[in-house]
Amino acid sequence: MNISHAWTSVWRMALMALVLILGLGLGQQALAQADPDREIATAVPSVDADAWRQIRSGETGPNFRSSRFDSNYNLINASGENWRQLRNRWVSPFGLIAIGGMLAMIVIFYLIFGRKRLDEPKTGRKLPRWPLMMRSLHWTVATLFILLALSGLNLFYGKLVFKPLFGDSAWSGMISASKLVHNYLGPLFGILLVFLLLRLFKENLPKKHDLVWFKKGGGMIGKGHVDAGFANGGEKVWYWLLATVGIAVIASGLVLDFPNFGQSRDTMQWANIIHALGALGLTAVALGHIYIGTIGTEGSLEGMTTGYVDETWAKEHHNLWYEKVKDQTVTKEQLAADHGNTRGGDQAAPRTS
Question: Cytochrome b561 bacterial/Ni-hydrogenase domain: from which residue to which, for each copy (predicted)?
Fold first, then answer.
């Protein structure tokens, strides 16, 4: 089986899983709409000033109490109102500023500087950079990240955007599908992200030359290229954001995803705040990562799609790594022949040119 056939199979499986999840979401939506008016009318009695006095004093009766066995927790309480205010007044604006600001920065940067082109023509000689297993893991994690980001944004802002545009029925279907996608794909994303972080740990350890990389703005300040190993300073920052903020998002998401392990509602409220802040921040930074890795830098996407990078790209962007692997270059002809003879779809052993 060659690389293209293996890659096609991976994407077909991912597409089938997505279709299944969306189908489940639409089914849940139909069940939820059976009698929504009666549910709203009987869910909770009216909350007036006297009820709020009781809530703040903790004197609420059984009508406001959790239905869990032997529970004395009040469903309506002052901490819930504090959580709502924090979420709406601080977390929600933070997300809009972070994501909107990053999009604006990308557009302005592109209009001013354009795409980062290679200083020298491509040689046509290739260096192996990403094996098939790493590329498959990267694209799977990236796809899950995008699905989780879109579904999370819909859960957070969808009511303000899509409900007025499409009405209650369409919006409820979108919310139901988003909730299923988020709840079921979140743990899978967490597991695969940990595998990815462990695999890339050694390449992302900080080095002294990373300080110079930052001082020169990744090569934008001053003349000449800045030193970089397998990963440059910017890529290492993204890695450690995923290894810290990303793990916090995963942990808080698991607290929310599995509320049956004895955690209190207060704990889940804080988990919700941590989850939202971390996820919104990572989404904003991910937009920059996606831009730089695709249209922002010539030759970058090639490494993660084919597994190989051009010799010129390696010299200009990762010169220290290039010096270690420059004897592994292969020509286009050798690469085509190796891929034609390789079984299992992985890269062939590199040849010296």
Answer: 129-307
271 backbone φψ class: left, alpha, beta (φ>0; ψ -120 to 50): alpha
| 76 C-beta neighbours (distance < 10 Å), count | 16
Contact in structure between 80 and 269 (CB atoms under 8 Å): yes
Report helix, strand or coil for 347. coil
Token pair belonging to 178: 């988003």
pLDDT in tens, 82-130: 888 899 899 999 999 999 999 999 999 999 988 889 889 998 899 999 9
Q: Report how far residue 334's alpha carbon sits from residue 103's, in angstroms, rounded to the nearest whole number.
A: 41
Q: Which residues pair with 155 in a beta bridge?
A: none
Give CA–CA dist 185/147, Å, rounded: 8
Nearest-angstrom CA–CA distance, 60 and 186: 36
The full set of domains in the chain, from first to last, is: 3-35+78-341 (1.20.950.20), 44-76 (no CATH)
Residues listed for the chain:
353
The Cα-based distances of 253 to 3, 82, 177 in angstroms read: 35, 20, 17
Residue with tokens 């802040």: 277
Check if the beta carbon of residue 137 is closer than 8 Å to that of residue 196.
Answer: yes
Q: Which helix (H) or strand (E) holds 309?
A: strand 308-310
115-141 burial, b for 16+ CB within 10 Å, e for fewer? ebeeeeeeeebbbbbbebeebebbbbb
DSSP-based helix, strand, coil % in the chain, nearest 5: 75, 5, 25
Report the phi/psi class of residue 219: left, alpha or beta, with left for phi > 0 and alpha for psi in -120 to 50: left
